[in-house]
Design a protein that fits this description.
Elements lengths: L2 H14 L20 E2 L2 E2 H4 L1 H12 L6 H11 L16 H10 L4 E4 L2 H9 L4 E7 L5 E9 L2 E5 L9 E3 L4 H7 L2 E9 L7
Antiparallel strand pairs: 1-2, 3-8, 4-5, 4-8, 5-6, 6-7
Helix pairs in contact: 1-4, 3-4, 3-5, 4-5
């Protein structure tokens, strides 16, 4: 299927379920999110990076188009190897940062736990790409500190709501997810809410 056909299909899913796309997304494996496509796969398989971009923008006060984010993710952020189906390995953090920049959101990719902790202490969302310690898969989530709890968006494939945990620094949050930090995407200062 061509990118333009996928975009139209994803747009129909999005407009057909406006309420589901008007709030941060949780549970990429649930409908209507699983009905979208990215690369050669259904949305439940590899859209965590796109969902993280959507949730990040939403938490910064924007109203993003999920179908446009998927289109840009396919164009700029999917790992592509000739012997694999497109999107088999999902998206990469630098590509997701590029998608955000195209959508008008200033951000930086970093491995600095200190910078992530600073953004979290300023009540800002942070995109975390982490590797599961046991199964070795990688997954994008968005984290925001609210009071003394961390909110984790799209934690599980079948999440129905945001997951809350008591941890307040990025390293302990990542460890509570059963993973190790790979990269973080943080908002530029001008994007931070006042």
């Amino acid at each position: 299927m061509k990118s333009s056909e996928k975009y139209r299909r994803n747009r129909r899913v999005e407009t057909g379920s406006k309420a589901a796309f008007s709030v941060p997304i949780n549970g990429q494996g649930r409908e209507p999110y699983s009905l979208t496509t990215l690369g050669d796969f259904s949305g439940g398989y590899n859209t965590c990076g796109s969902i993280a971009a959507f949730n990040f923008m939403h938490l910064l006060g924007h109203k993003p188009s999920f179908s446009r984010i998927l289109y840009l993710t396919e164009k700029y952020a999917l790992f592509s190897l000739p012997f694999m189906k497109k999107g088999k390995l999902g998206a990469h953090a630098f590509g997701i940062a590029r998608v955000l920049k195209i959508m008008g959101i200033g951000c930086a990719v970093t491995a600095s736990v200190k910078k992530a902790d600073k953004a979290l202490s300023d009540d800002q969302p942070v995109i975390l790409l982490y590797q599961d310690k046991k199964q070795l898969y990688m997954h994008f989530v968005v984290i925001r500190i609210s009071g003394n709890k961390a909110e984790i968006f799209n934690r599980y494939n079948n999440s129905k709501s945001t997951v809350f945990i008591e941890k307040t620094d990025i390293r302990s949050i990542t460890e509570s997810l059963g993973g190790r930090i790979i990269l973080l995407i943080i908002p530029n200062r001008k994007e931070r809410l006042t």
